[in-house]
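Chapter review. Work through the record for NnrU domain-containing protein before attempting the end-of-chapter questions.
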Amino acid sequence: MTILILGLLIFLGAHSVRIFAEGWRDAQIARIGEKRWKAAYSGASIIGLVLIIWGYAIARREPAALWAPPIWAPHLTALLTLIAFILFPAAHMPGTHFKSVLKHPMVIGVALWALGHLLANGTWNAVVLFGAFLVWAIFDFAAARRRDRAAQVVYPAGTFSRDLMAIVAGAIAWVVFAFFLHGWLIGVKPLG
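Structure tokens for NnrU domain-containing protein:
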């Protein structure tokens, strides 16, 4: 569990600098330049992600059960994850209703993904992993909305054609991941 926690600290720590130390972040970017900042940020993120995957794989060998997930949990997780997969491209695609209404759809997608996986996995290592991502997403969303209000950000209205593009892209990615890659990469086939 130590490797998993270390990975979470590094990965979520890197992704939390803007939440908790935006002034320091801006000073570092001014000091070393945006390219170097992005390189350091990316390096920390990759190291953290590798440690998360490795640590979770080790922790899964001897899971400590906290509760038995309800029988409906995998189905709800599949639905929440599908929505999350749609919100990811919607966050990077200008002109969607998802962006104009939700403001930060990718962070909401992370929260839905984490919540779904918390419901479907009743082990201590799952609570640590998915709970950490859920808590991070809540803090990140609140910080992003504060930044939006301070900067008086107005998101442009969306179009249904852009929404459809996000839905199709997210749904295709979800099908590929849920039916093919999840079992191969994670070792669990969520939909049989």
